[in-house]
Design brief:
Blueprint lengths: L8 E9 L4 E10 L4 E5 L6 H8 L7 E6 L2 E2 L3 H7 L3 E4 L11 H12 L4 H8 L12 H13 L5 E5 L7 H17 L2 E5 L3 H7 L2 E6 L2 E7 H7 L2 E7 L1 H7 L5 E7 L2 E6 L3 H9 L3 E7 L3 H9 L5 H14 L2 H10 L1
Parallel strand pairs: 3-8, 3-9, 6-7, 7-8
Antiparallel strand pairs: 1-2, 1-4, 4-5, 9-10, 11-13, 11-14, 12-13
Helix pairs in contact: 4-5
């Protein structure tokens, strides 16, 4: 694990045990200054628990983390650090009766709102209306405005594009890339893998509470082999798919597709030895890459872990408002 002095987030053996469920199990990683870090995993993997630990909304069972230099076990230091943090929770705790404008006024009074108008032009929530009239997408856009409007050094987001339409998702992606170029550090969990591929510099993959991978997106794709689609005769397909390194061949009318993790020269030699009508070789879909780490099924304990997350979320509306305004 890299532990540079300037790392905005450093997790060191972070563990959270709810008793029946080990939500985080000795999780260690560092996020570099000015990078976009994607935190990924299947439902119940422990992503939201990690985020709440980093923000001091939960206390670790073991281990610790530093966020902008503050130890998360030091409430005074972490409270001071959170003035430089933007936070977008998965479950927004806005008052249903308040207007979007009132919500932004409240947060602005607590931590500043120098970029408020700029962000409202980009994300366009209907701030004159009460929150109870908001769609899921409008709530999320209001949350994005409040998370970034005080120009934080670090922004932590839990599923930031949930509910956004495709145009707003792309606007968000472009905005995050611009923020990274300005030096802002962005840490977010996501299930939108195409989004991860477009905006993240590195990813950490969490499964059953444990960190199973920490790598750049480009390196993950490169190491996961090539996606190959071949149009050829049945005899040619049989010989090509017999090569070492062929993974998950799937037949279709006129050919076969598979992931190839072997020697590329050997594949090219095999293709050249047959009457191949057409061939496509490219990077594997990112969904296939992450499926390798997620597995085809969630473990039975993950349902329990989600239940623990929901129990913690039961009191999170107030906690999240406090974290946002800290």
């Amino acid at each position: 694990m890299s532990d540079e002095p300037g790392s905005p987030i450093v997790a060191d053996g972070l563990t959270k045990d709810f008793g029946s469920v080990l939500a985080n199990d000795d999780v260690s990683f560092a996020v570099d200054e000015g990078e976009v870090f994607g935190f990924l995993g299947p439902n119940g993997a422990g992503k939201s628990t990690t985020i709440r630990l980093l923000l001091g909304l939960l206390k670790p069972t073991a281990g610790t983390a530093r966020v902008l230099g503050a130890d998360i076990r030091d409430e005074t230091a972490l409270t001071a650090a959170k003035r430089r943090i933007g936070y977008l929770p998965a479950h927004l705790g806005f008052s249903e009766a308040a207007t979007g404008e009132a919500v932004l006024d409240y947060h602005g009074a607590m931590k500043g709102d120098g970029r408020r108008e700029e962000l409202l032009e980009l994300f366009t929530p209907p701030i004159a209306r009460p929150i109870r009239e908001y769609s899921t997408g409008n709530r999320r856009m209001l949350g994005l405005v409040q998370a970034f409007m005080h120009d934080p050094d670090l922004v932590i987001m839990d599923e930031p594009t949930a509910g956004l339409d495709p145009l707003k998702q792309e606007a968000f992606n472009e905005f995050v890339r611009t923020e990274r170029d300005r030096g802002t550090t962005v840490f977010f969990s996501s299930h939108v893998l195409s989004e991860v591929q477009r905006v993240c510099d590195r990813v950490g993959i969490l499964r059953a509470g444990s960190l199973v991978e920490l790598e750049t997106v480009d390196a993950l794709l490169h190491r996961s082999g090539k996606h190959v689609r071949v149009h050829a005769s049945d005899a040619a397909v049989a010989e090509i798919t017999a090569l070492g390194g062929v993974v998950g061949p799937e037949r279709f009318g006129g050919g076969v597709q598979f992931v190839y993790a072997g020697d590329l020269d050997a594949l090219l030699d095999a293709l050249a030895a047959h009457d191949v009508r057409d061939v496509e070789i490219g990077e594997p879909p990112i969904e296939d890459v992450f499926a390798h780490y997620y597995g085809s099924e969630e473990s039975p304990a993950q349902g329990d872990r989600e239940a623990s997350d929901r129990r913690e979320n039961g009191s999170s509306a107030v906690d999240e408002r406090e974290a946002d305004s800290a």
